[in-house]
UniProtKB/TrEMBL annotation:
InterPro entries: Ribosomal_uL13, Ribosomal_uL13_bac-type, Ribosomal_uL13_CS, Ribosomal_uL13_sf. GO terms for cellular component: cytosolic large ribosomal subunit. GO terms for molecular function: mRNA binding; structural constituent of ribosome. The keyword Transferase does not apply. This is Large ribosomal subunit protein uL13. HAMAP family: Ribosomal_uL13. SUPFAM superfamilies: Ribosomal protein L13 (SSF52161). It comes from candidate division TA06 bacterium.
Amino acid sequence: MKTYVAKKEDVKKDWYLIDAKDKVLGRLAVQIADILKGKNKVIYTPHVDTGDFVVVVNVEKMHFTGNKLLQKTYHRHSGYMGNAKSITLEEMMTKHPERVLMHAVKGMLPKSKLGRQMLKKLKVYKGSEHPHQAQTPKPIS
């Protein structure tokens, strides 16, 4: 018997809705990354995008373990001398809570074209409203 290799045409993409309220960031990011990769499907193939779309709402109500709100920092650099910038998790949650989850999930996906393609299937929103009702996403607890 030969190993089944999924093809792009064989993959059916579903939509899932996740409510981030009272969920821990890391555990939520792992769950989302597995769905985006397609690891929850029988036809999972590492070199084919077999994952589904994920819509996350209420991202501003996520929880963090330990003292991460004050101690965790995000760094970026423009490439110019002396232009390194740092921002704490607490500041990031007040300004852009969507980016916190996107950053965590991005680190759990492959660092390749396939990983960037998977990340495009993640839709993150503040509040409980989202513009994807037409796709009828299945809620996941």
